[in-house]
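Narrative summary of target 7.
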Amino acid sequence: EVQLVESGGGLVQAGGSLRLSCAASGFTFDDYAIGWFRQAPGKEREGVSCISSSDGSTYYADSVKGRFTISSDNAKNTVYLLMSSLHPEDTALYYCAAVAYYMDYGALPTMAYEYDYWGQGTQVTVSS
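Modeled conformation, tokenized:
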């Protein structure tokens, strides 16, 4: 059974940092792309970042480029999202998601509909 479990969310002041974790199980981690998405109340789910577990290639949404860093520890089947210089508009429920991905697939999957498996989410709240 595929499982994705997010952790690390919380309340932080603007300008602060948080590190989210996504622990994966039930599939061959090296053959998947892991993405981070977020959804604020009343807004659509937004792609934040993703990483290929096989070659480490990454994608960042323009809104987080230079502030967020995604990384993967394949030995622990875990993907991290280090979020720095947080803004109140980063407040959202953050989800990680997984989809089978191989290097010859081309561009990394960045849209929610491209992902097959989802975690339950972790809340990030940034106060001003």
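The longest strand covers residues 92-100.
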